[in-house]
Amino acid sequence: MKLKRAYSPVEIQNMNIPTFDFTGAWEDSLGRPARTGTWIIWGQPGNGKSSFAMQLVKYLCKFDRVIYDSLEESTGKSLQMSLNRHNMEEVNHKLLILDRESMAELSERLSRKRSPGIVIIDSFQYSGLTYQGYKELKEKHSNKLLIFISHAEGVRPDGRIAKKVEYDADIKIFVQGFKAVCKSRFMERPGVPFTIWEEGAAKCWIE
Q: Please, what are the domains in the chain?
């Protein structure tokens, strides 16, 4: 058996690891994360999860092309309204929306040359992934950023497998009351909550 090489601390310290040069509220919440790995976003309906996801997608389009695999909503009226609400035509040439593309098909797409570097999978519960399948997807496309949107069960992602993904993810984002609370491996402490909608957040948190 051929073993992988081992690294010294200095070798790792000197590695040039590509990161997102986030600024403003995004940096305050998420730091400057690596451009690869996995994130997970979850929250109860009506708390701003979809709106946060769309704002995040639009911001990420500043850095790379983005795939949005719409497994749950397909290309229906709800997605159309969300795209209109966030003026997503402004990133028309950077965003590719897939209509319920299976994980096998998505993996094939990501294997092609010059495929987008960022992938949103909405939602994890509709992906059909097992935890082993998740790990295989992550390892096969280790040069990509995979972001999973999940249903919630209380204050945790819904389901045993989604909870395991939460533990594994580099960035964990819980949406509640139109605020996104982020825990990032790229920050020494939890980030400042990201306000999704000022008026809605003010009303929710006062109540």
A: 34-206 (3.40.50.300)
